[in-house]
Amino acid sequence: MSHPHLEAIIRTAAALGRTTVAVAYPCNPTSIEAAIMAQQRGLIHPILVGPRERIAAIAQEHGFDLRDAEFVDTDDDAAAASRACVTLCQEGRAKIIMKGSLHTDELLSVVLSKDSGMRTGRRVSHAFVFDVPNYSKPLLMADCVVNIAPGLMDKRDIVQNAVDLAHVLGIELPRVGILCAVETINAAIPATLEAAALSKMAERGQITGALVDGPLAFDNAISLEAARIKGIDSKISGNCDILIAPSLEAGNMLYKQLIYLAGAECAGLVLGTKVPIIITSRADSAACRVASCALAAIKASGVRLDPFNNSREGAFQPSLVS
Questions:
Q1: What is the mean pLDDT of the segment spanning 227-244?
Q2: Single pTM value for the model
Q3: Which of 127, 148, 292, 308 is such that its CA lies 20 to 30 A from the CA of 164?
Q4: Domains assigned to the chain
């Protein structure tokens, strides 16, 4: 199945040249293969951080060519590898961190420690960019990975992080749908109250650079016809660029439904840190892993690109992000 939006992201990132990525503890075949595939596509220069002999033995067993990879040898300890990745970013030797075979919370606990220098003033969150075959444009969604039960101000940062990512991808005024089970405010469903508050916060400048509306059920966020039938007058119905899930549970289930039932593919990043962080699942496809590297390279570049229009126009014209 074709996924032209993700291919556009990969082509655009390749045009930037290879970005150096610190790969934290790549001690299984999947994580080594992901780094090598992204390197072969011209996206990254991997620094494999972990026990060198163990990594090399796994690569040899599975036929992976590590001749062009760089190593930072550490003890056979995931936390040591994570600390080394942070150090590489602090020193400017790497611009992206990529999770290897360690658990996500192991990596993030090191990245978000007080002495890491990786924190910003924002809540850390995750966003996917989906290529859904029957949706006319890329669709971002947050947060399906990091924040379990975010409160209102957490959701404000989740929205802003996703909006900023959309801007980097050339989406000038993204339309953000705040998802709930229903499209009306119901005091018995706290997510509807938070969705309404987020909409008002966008009107008052507490969220910038986007049109935000909610609460919206999934059908009237995605389908203009569903909104019309229900009598919903929204500037974003049927034309959403970003969907915000009410909780990790809801977002995670929706993300997997899009992948396994709708034939979607995706790229994902941890946002709200000084450098982008690639967090992939063991079940993610090769296309997802490569596209996530490409998305991270674009985010780390510090330039605003337009991969989706450029894929049609055939031009590559980066401009500085304001």
A1: 94
A2: 0.92
A3: 148
A4: 120-272 (3.40.718.10)
